[in-house]
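Fold this sequence, please.
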Amino acid sequence: MTDPQTSTVINQLERTSRWWKRLALGALAALSMILLIGIAAVDSQRQQIRAEHERAEQALREAEAQRNQAQRALYANHIALAEREWADASRRPANSP
């Protein structure tokens, strides 16, 4: 048999061991929660960035379409102006400037 002093020390060591195990398990649980929250935050940010990127690309496509439309309108206006100048030139007498 063991003496009472040794038994007391063994009991105290067992209690200390259980306390450290609970502390480690609690720390692991807290770390896991922080990790899960971090992953969720990163995923949320990634989705927001992807959505903003898609909106920017759509805005760029719309701007390019408007630019092309403006270029076609400008070309049509130049053609109309040239036709008017041509018509005006053909109505003027040959010796006037």
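The chain has a mean pLDDT of 93. The longest helix spans residues 4-91.
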